[in-house]
Amino acid sequence: MRSDQFRPPIILASTSSIRRQLLSRLNVPFDVISPEIDESPFERENAQTLSCRLAEQKAATISAQFPHALVIGSDQVVWIESEPHVFIGKPLTAARAYEQLRNLSGKLVHFETAVNVQCQQLNINRTELIRFLVHFRNLSAVEIQRYVAFDQPFYSAGSIKAESLGISLFEAMHGEDFTALMGLPLIKLSQMLREVGWQVP
User: Fold this and answer.
1) Which terminal Cβ of the chain has fewer Cβ within 10 Å, N or C?
2) Overall number of domains in the chain
3) Of these residues, 31, 38, 75, 151, which one is catalytic?
4) What is the DSSP string of 43-97?
């Protein structure tokens, strides 16, 4: 990625309020526009490829409309150690959140989070993939019910809000950037922003 005298405005291509909150932590001005894309996986597509493809596609959708802007797209794909081709999406309902967490209980779960930045005017298109592992502790039915009622993680992949009470569901975590688990890897994104002229911090 190259730097230039022109410092592009930032657009976050996302529908996620959590990603919006995360990006706000970097103290840079940005707008948010929701991309409209089909997030269905291709046949035999693995989690890493899917996450990177969707992050790039989200950014590309908005970059085509605003070629002067630096557009940030991000996507997260979740899978269980023993089932690499079974992706765990957003539950949308309390019943499905309960079933997801019951299935994740006691398991090692992979979170593949990709971030893509694009600026057509600067000829920038870069994707980075950050991996994070979570070992869920053995959860009782009552614990799962209490958690779902409290956090209502209906729009979080894997039915957890790690930034909230979801942290209590874990036995251990393994990874370089906790914000990747939350949906937007800020360490890598900060580096990307610095490379195009933004001061972070």
Assistant:
1) C
2) 1
3) 75
4) TT--HHHHHHHHHHHHHHHHHTT-TTSEEEEEEEEEEETTEEEEEE----SHHHH
Residue 3 lies in a domain: no
Residue type, 75: D
Contact by Cβ (8 Å): 19, 74: yes
Task: Tell whether 200 is covered by a domain.
Answer: no
Quick one: which of 22, 77, 86, 19 has its CA closest to 53? 77
pTM of this structure = 0.91
- Its domain, for residue 115, covers 10-195
Tens-digit pLDDT profile for residues 114-134: 999 999 999 999 999 999 999
CATH at 166: 3.90.950.10
The reply to whether 39 falls in a domain is: yes
Judge whether 31 counts as a catalytic residue. no
Structural domain contains residue 2: no
What's the token pair of residue 89?
């999406």
Q: In terms of Cα–Cα distance, which of 22, 130, 135 is closest to 75?
A: 130
Residue 2 has a pLDDT of: 47
